[in-house]
Amino acid sequence: MTTATRHVAPAAQAPATRTFPQGFLWGTATAAYQIEGAAALDGRTPSIWDTYARTPGKVRNGDTGDIATDHYHRWREDVAIMADLGVGAYRFSIAWPRVQPTGRGPAVQKGLDFYRRLTDELLDKGIQPVATLYHWDLPQELEDAGGWPERATADRFAQYAALAADALGDRVHTWTTLNEPWCSAFLGYGSGVHAPGRTEPVAALRAAHHLNLAHGKAVQALRANLPAAAQVSVTLNIHHVRPLTTAEPDVDAARRIDALANRVFTGPMFEGAYPADLLRDTAHLTDWSFVRDGDTADIKQRLDFLGVNYYTPTLVSAAADGTHHGSDGHGRSDHSPWPGADNVAFHLPPGNTTAMGWAVDPTGMHDLLLRLSADLPGTPLVITENGAAFDDYVDPSGEVRDPDRIAYLHGHLTAVHQAIEAGVDVRGYFLWSLLDNFEWGYGYSKRFGTIYVDYPTGKRIPKASSRWYANLARTSTLTPLD
């Protein structure tokens, strides 16, 4: 997978309307720890995020996911909201510690029953359930045994995948193994801005490999326990990395970040090998002896599609002082999430930004999709997350008006459509997120939802963007903004 180094401009003239292909799947997405709450109910035990959120200074305002949006009790209301949106699919994650609290042994039936009820309700409303096995909530007991840097965790994950598939495979026909393993490995074990909050460069690389291995073994477990027609995927937050200039040091900085952000996963998953330049760049840290014979064969498994999460591009240059500096958009830390690429500077691309401080740049979406189509021929793509946080509020009339979010979505969906016109096989789009929710280290201070949540009461209030998206989901037609 080669590094993208130039911007490919989409067509300058947009037609009056853009109609997506017949069968294009419109959905919305959430994650268990961000919305469920009920953190100690019905046998659920702590995950690494429960522990991390309770650690002073780790999460803004000391927020936790103990209650979140109380989806565990309000799931029926939330499915009704999805039905009103007219979406065809809902991407959710299964909380590992809710269905297998210690990360080993038999399932807790009350935990599985929650997902059985949820998926039955979705199916009753004509909404396709899309289940993600892992969205960052590792059972704390497995972290206590070493976490993702330990090989045994990959074997535990495969057993959990088999358990979930056996319990829900009659209802759920589309599965995702991991969501954004880059965040799990490099933010969780490198910079420490995500759970479990460790700052160990070699542990981050070990975690990346064992997440890859967990993915491959889980795909095998899913296929062994699901009907033949079931679809299996992985979701990666592929960074669209651009060099600040065409000067060789900047281009090389982009190559190094691309290796750590993207090819550390796509290499073994799609090509059956880790990139040679990644191994060279990190040779002073580790000899990669934790990669055993047969591992890459286990990792490279047939996938029905690749889930792509995109929010903003990554702009880098060589650092003049030889150190990692500048915001990479993943939270402030004294420790780098980029082992072996410390002499890189991160830059904010020009233009508008979201409440996260991320640049609004739909061209990154377009260019990324073209790159993936070229590098992974024959692999269908689904946008599994795309959206934006803004400083939403309920106005005196009781409305939540979010024109900036509508403009963000319109621009990025235009980019998706232009990529489809260019021949890219994109089959669906999932808006992040259905609900305002617990935004990891930012707590409840950032609102990504198309539905506003009043946290003290749990009341759901549709934002203007929800009505806009509902019209799009029903018509598959993108019309110009007023």
UniProtKB/TrEMBL annotation:
Class of this enzyme: hydrolase
Residue positions of the active site: 180 (proton donor), 385 (nucleophile)
Keywords: Carbohydrate metabolism, Cellulose degradation, Glycosidase, Hydrolase, Polysaccharide degradation
Binding site for substrate: 34, 135, 179, 311, 432, 439-440
Reaction catalysis annotation: Hydrolysis of terminal, non-reducing beta-D-glucosyl residues with release of beta-D-glucose
Pfam family, one: Glyco_hydro_1
Chain positions covered by the region annotation Disordered: 321-344
GO biological process, one term: cellulose catabolic process
GO molecular function per UniProt: beta-glucosidase activity
Gene3D superfamilies xref list: Glycosidases (3.20.20.80)
Segments of skewed composition (Basic and acidic residues): 322-335
UniProt-listed Enzyme Commission number(s): 3.2.1.21
GO cellular component, one term: cytosol
Similarity field: Belongs to the glycosyl hydrolase 1 family.
PANTHER family linked to this entry: GLYCOSYL HYDROLASE (PTHR10353), LP05116P (PTHR10353:SF36)
Protein's name according to its UniProt entry: Beta-glucosidase
Annotated organism of origin: Streptomyces pristinaespiralis (strain ATCC 25486 / DSM 40338 / CBS 914.69 / JCM 4507 / KCC S-0507 / NBRC 13074 / NRRL 2958 / 5647)
